[in-house]
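Sequence only, no structure available. Ideas?
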Amino acid sequence: MSQLFEISKESCINCYACVRVCPVKAIEVKAGLNYAKIIADRCIGCGSCLNICPVNAVKYHSSKEEVKALLSSGAKVAAICAPSISGEFVDITDYRKFVEMIKSLGFTYVCEVTFGVDLVAREYKKLFDNFKGKYFLTTTCPVVVSLIEKFHPELINNLAPIVSPMVATAKAVHDLYGNDTKVVAIGPCVQHKEEIKLYTSDGKIDSVLTYVELRELFDEFNVKE
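Reply:
I predicted one. Tokens follow.
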């Protein structure tokens, strides 16, 4: 894994909150140092450290500049939005306008990952109808997949052979609008920034924006409802 999360040496107050909350012991404080450090090889991208830090010393890789480059490249760019986007942006009163807000940033298409959820649900039904007594672990969440791969490799064969709804939606977008269409996923999960590196063909996703980053882009380009 690349360094998805980083802890600022200048901002860290060495309170050990992140060390205590990390479920996989991926944060260390070495003797003589007054700041915490993330061990990239152990990190599963859950974001617990980000949420617990009292001084906002934990940051994650920003995708805003690469997304702006995509939007200004002249290519067709599709935004695929996680279902939770309506719960996050409760300040938007008319979601038809919300689509236009996203398009105002330069996106050609705005699509819902709920379509990918339906596709994935269909595949899980097929799996359950013919599971032959085998226990499967969901592959919908990239944090769960990372946890299994890094800390429970003996269970890798129990991971369901099904892509996540985000990737399924990207496949549908490429099928509908062409393989030359760039895809940007918008959602709450930072670990998706790592997940997209696994796909290079029809499931390729070019970048991931968190909801925080989307709000920052709205502010930067003065896009309002």
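The two ends are 38 Å apart (CA to CA).
Hope that gets you unstuck.
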